[in-house]
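User: Round two. Same drill as before: sequence, then structure, for each protein.

Assistant: Same drill it is. First protein:
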Amino acid sequence: MARVLEFKLPDLGEGLTEAEIVRWLVEVGDVVTIDQPVVEVETAKAMVEVPCPYGGVVTARFGEEGSELPVGAPLLTVAVGSPSTAPDDADTDRPPEGQGRAARSDGGPAAERGATVQREETPESGETAGETAGETSGNVLVGYGTGAPAARRRRVRPSVYAATAQTSAPTPAPGGPGQVPARAGATDPAVAEEWEGPVAVISPLVRKLARRHGLDLRQITGSGREGLILRADVESAIKGLEEDAESVAASAPPLGGPAVGGRPGPVVQPIQAATEGERIALRGVRGAVADKLSRSRREIPDATCWVDADATELMAARAAMNATADGGSTPKVSVLALLARICTAALSRFPELNSAVDTEAREVVRLPAVHLGFAAQTERGLMVPVVRDAHSRNTESIGAEIGRLTEAARTGKLTPAQLTGGTFTLNNYGVFGVDGSTPIINHPEAAMLGVGRIVAKPWVHEGELAVRQVVQLSLTFDHRVCDGATAGGFLRYVADCVEQPALLLRTL
């Protein structure tokens, strides 16, 4: 007899709490193999194909394309049995199109198998890892192991789950296959009375959104599994408040202004809420960028200094390097790679800027390795891939890694690990045709170097006025890790290397 196993959205690492379904790679009734990608999701950091740790027949999908799911929410269920019977079960176990696991609550095969559904959090006591070794994979994602009992995230109260199971299964909401209806237990008063403990919210972003708009999460009914409150629930509540405020403002009589000369003043219309215009949700990469930049502005007392530098010699050195390339077999050296190599040399002289602040311990942590991030603009928004161990690479190696990561960013193939862990960021906004900027530090880093466009300008060179290639460099730094003298020394050394690239020969 086949067992129906529930595959939940695993922990994708780096503190991510939710993901958006971009594209389903399997349909209900398809036969999947162990570690076969079944869905493509987008987190706040990257797009990831999620592999299924079970082999068998897909019996249900949870969530439509474009919907968000919290970590730990069900993705799909798989009927797992002997390999010889799995394909035959595909025809008998497949529910009608557009229905999920609860589609056959009237006593059909799916309902009969309900008692055999095994949750990854609570494996049967008699089952060992060896017994399921042929049906499950190993550690397929960060924090998610299927060969052994997984770490428990949250225990579902037996009384709540039992009460939910006894109620009639919810009917699927209209909108297409895989749509997840609200669970009966989320709105049943009897079940709600039994539930005790914290508010059913996993995502800190949901809590922050509710707090920003003064909403009491205990007054919101969650539409997620087990009454989990999702972002859509909070946004719906916010929209209801705005509509109520707009209706009250529209029905209120005009207010009279202060009396002038015994006569009533001009009529003052109440200020209407900004409900008109297009609203774009801050989700995915855009939402992650917004949160990180806001946190940087709140927590980091930053300061910026800048200087103009004559980059004529640097551009000449780059041209000479590229002129020696063997017919295209050797990749050309980019300006960004040269600037990145200059940054690693400068950070070795001024390690204060390659650090982070531990606010709880009130300590500055100087980091031994330089993991250099660089800003890359893509169709999905601004991303900051990280060149690992940039301090141990030469210019050619840094350039090759920048090229590889840039291509991955453009195609949406960057992993969360390639977008995190940076210790210093290089931002070349000169590609947009601008000269200067005051960059916002990429929290929790301590500094960021900004580079403007390299453009021909009049410049005094060797006592004479000449046309030179000039660039503006700006350094934004965390004033807690160093004083202005250190930041100025770092920026001056970078400018000197731009003007005289031969200075780098000392550190080769």
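Second protein:
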Amino acid sequence: MEWIDAATAAERLGIKPATLYAYVSRGVVQRRHSEDGRRSLFSAEEIERLARRGRPRAQPPELVIESAVTSLGVDRPYYRGTDALALARTAAFETVAEWLWTGDPGVWLRAAPGGRRLQPDGGLRATPGERRLEPDAGLRGAPGTWRFEPGDGLRAAVAAQRGLPGDLMPLDRLQVIVTVLGASDSLRYQLDPDSVTATARRLIAGLVDALPPLGEPQGDTIAERLWSRLCPHPATPGLLDALRAALVLLADHELAASTLAARVAASAKADPYAVVLTGLGVLGGPLHGGASYAAERLLDEITHPGEAPRVIGERVRRGERIPGFGHSVYKNGDARGTLLLDLIRKAVTETGARTAPCPPAKRAHRGGPGEPARPGDPGEIVLRPDRIDVVDAVLAEMRRRRLPHPNVDLALATLVTVSGMTRGAGEAIFAVARAAGWLAHAMEEYRRGSLLRLRASYTGPPPK
């Protein structure tokens, strides 16, 4: 059988590539991925039959949005053509965000010393006459420290939370924070690319820095500052690296539900803060970013590996979904979750279990009534290798039952429980990371300059 690429198939049909992919989602044509997962391939025979028959007319129209930000492969996303997993192994979150926003290869030059460039496989290409560096050399640094200015806006966002319940989860706080930050930023209505990029840096920095501090930041990167807002004790190097990788892996995922909502808001020329607020409203749903919190609760319910078969079995009997498993795009496994779990395992293996006190004043932020004790409470273990054993038991039981593969939500929940972060921390990590993607898509809508307007397929009584 002869296989052709998307451009050739679209040309033969006389349609745009975006329309071709709409045909795929509607089941009009079938596709397979190339061995490297980067290209879609189509049967030349099937395309020829469709070309002779003509375009399908009987189905309702489908919204298709052309975008250069992210494409989805067999098991992973590609950010402007670059493997997100390669970036997660090497790059600072701030640098990846700049790449999503601008597509400027210069971001890698600014992030790495000596004029070295990041290659598509995540390695570094040396300048002429210079030996090739190790993949992680020099790339963990961010392109300058991001801060929210003016400081009065940040102080207002902190003050706005004083009347909120002490055990409110971080995602709920972020919705308050972004509203106040936006109201205090007089530059928010400037929608040219350079201004939006500058606003994006301020906005993400403000989201992190306005959260209640639980510890002292170990540095100035977004990952280091976010850790201090979600966990009351210092990070080990390995777990901090896992958090950095999680931010990169979750920075964008094509037209996920929250991203579509954010794009619609941006198409109406909503300012960047309103775009992020729109995304946050959708992200918290249990079928989207809220799935990580559901996975946290699942792991909390299993106190030791031997309980995994019973807990999974009871959920199956009740007809419930198992959180942290299955994906609408990655049917055969989510490589983002696999990589993040590997980094967590490595961090725990290198560090082992330690104990450290947690200041009592911080405990109000770590869980509500009836919540299980989390690592890091006074006398509790800070790093808990037993949580990895529980995750392994859950994975084994899911395989035994031939249930769906794990996804990145399970890995995110594992990071939270192993590290002793506050409950719901996974949602906050997801939100801070995905804000970068929402703003990248918003920039495309600002440039496009027309309102996204879906049409309904009416099913009600006929008009009178």
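Confidence is low (pLDDT under 50) at residues 113-117, 120-142, 355-381.

User: Perfect.
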